[in-house]
Amino acid sequence: MSENKEKKLGFGSQLIIENPVFGLYLGICSTLAISTNINNAIGMGIAVTIVLILSNILVSSVRNITPDDIHIPVYIVIIATLVTIVEMTMQAFTPDLYGALGEFIALIVVNCIILGRAEAYASLNPVGASAKDGLMMGISYTVSLFVMSLIRQILGTGVLSLSNPLTGAEIFAVRLIPESFVLSFMTTQTGAFLTFAVLAAACAAYKNKVTADDKGGK
Amino acid sequence: MNKESSSYKMILLGVLCGICGLLLAFVNSVTAPIIEKSSMAAEYSNLEAFFPGASFSEIKDYDDPTGLVTGVYEAEGQGMIYKVHSMGYDSEGFTFLIAYNNDGTVAGYTVLEHHETDGLGKRCFEEDYTAEIMKISASEEAPLLSGATLTSTGVHDGIEAARTLFIAKNGGTAPAPAEKTEEEQPEEPVSKALKDEDLSSAGAVCEEKENDGTTVIYACKAKGFNPDNEAEVTVDLSAGTITAFEVTNAADDKDGVGDDAYEADNIARYIGITSDSEVDAVSGATETSKALRAMAQAALAEAGE
Predict the structure, then answer these.
(1) Could you tell me which chain A residue has the CA closest to the CA of B33?
(2) Which chain B residues contact residue A89 at CB under 8 A?
């Protein structure tokens, strides 16, 4: 059933309805914490996407030799290894980004999206399909983080800026809102929850509309 | 082998952990030198600020009995830089760099990390105090800062540790601890008779409230961290001593900062004193202590007239 639905819906709609963050409420912890600027969002998004694709591939390829009752430890070891590799690589080559994301990189290990996809999809499907699923989920997560960071950064600081993660050099910085009009609470936890609530509500509203249309069509 | 048997599961997990371990070891061997290099680069960019263009080397074998110095760097032919971690008001302490030119003058003083209170301890890392530190040489101690006793004591102790190393490195003898305390005495702003202390910044004013010929009660007012610290000071006229000291308005009663000075134990230090007594300030509540001492001073002065 879900296969048919996926085919019927465009990529964009699927991104909203199957969105892990706003649709399924997975991986919220890191989303709330690091979505303060788009630099962090892109960096975290890429890190999660890489781990997600690789973990899906590996989990899928060991699915036939893994007995059921030890599958969780096997997945956790695989995911933890991948995350540690990503973490060490980031610390070495993108130190500024590493400093900004801090322990949230290590916490990718317990990001529900990754274990969730390993469990729900990769352990049942072939390698190719699992890799594609990892990529899709990674993109959804990155887009969600990006949208949330965009809102929080613009409203909270009034400046939209992006810097090169490799060197820390600024690529551009535009002031969109005068300094005296910024809502600095948007960069705090309060802003995170508000932004999340609004986006999740919008996502749910869209989902309801699509489901209603579906039923009407039939 | 049966997939459901325990030995199969053990071997599978063991092999998996082995592979993952090897993989991590490999990645670590590639990235560890780069990480170390970039963290050194960050450290060296701080050093560059003191001695632009110098070539730096880290000195590992130094003997610091205080344990405050966490890093020693030499700028070849120019001077030494000491990284110091010391304790102030905040329990995590603070880290700063102090650099000496080879001629013994201070080349620089920068804080790297601190969590001290804005307006109090934080002043130890701001322009005025930094300028004070820049003026001293390797033969002098760092000054303390009123209103930031704990933090500036931390800075002072840290600089002492660095200075000791610097003197030792230059073949001099490190000052003995006994000498140090002696030297410190005159610097303490409180270690002199109350009547000689300059407490004018507190602006203490006393008014006679009750007078029965032998004792007088004065209603006093002075500025501490906040204005309007008020106290009733009872003075025995014949002996010239304070017999009672009661705080009537604790204007600085902010949890953890000024409030120590109002504690019964600390108020007791004003009882029985004369204008020749020495009264110590309460550490961590310098400004408030100053207001209280100024009121005691003013009341005794009034009574003496």
Answers:
(1) A92
(2) 27, 31
Residue B34 CB-density burial (10 A; 0-12 exposed, 13-18 middle, 19+ buried): middle
Contacts of B14 (CB under 8 A, 6+ apart): none
- Chain B neighbors of A74, CB-CB under 8 A: 12-13, 16
Provide, for chain A, the percentages of residues in helix, strand and coil under a 3-state DSSP scheme, each rounded to the nearest 5: 75, 5, 20
Distance from CA of A215 to the nearest CA of B (A): 45
The whole-number pLDDT of residue B182 equals 39
pLDDT in tens, A106-150: 888 878 888 888 888 898 999 999 999 999 989 989 999 999 999
Most confident of B12-21, B238-247, B287-296: B12-21
Tell me which residues of chain A, numbers 87 to 146, contact chain B at a CB-CB cutoff of 8 Å.
88-89, 91-93, 95
Q: Tell me what pLDDT residue A126 has.
A: 92
* pLDDT on residue B177: 38
Closest Cα partner for A40 from A32, B246, A85?
Answer: A32
Among the partner-chain residues A70, A88, A95, the one whose CB lies closest to the CB of B13 is A70
- Tell me if A129 sits within 8 A of A15, measured CB to CB: no
The structure tokens listed for A96 are 């500024």
Distance from CA of A205 to the nearest CA of B (A): 44
Residues 6 or more apart whose CB falls under 8 angstroms from that of A159 comprise A153, A173, A174, A175, A176
Q: Which two tokens stand for residue B298?
A: 């003013």
Q: What is the DSSP-derived secondary structure letter of residue B235?
A: E
Q: Which of B271, B294, B298 has its CA nearest to residue B281? A: B294
Specify whether the CB–CB gap between A36 and A187 falls below 8 A: yes
Q: Which residues pair with B247 in a beta bridge?
A: B231
Minimal C-alpha gap between A67 and chain B (Å): 6
**Beta-carbon separation of A92 and B38 below 8 A:** yes
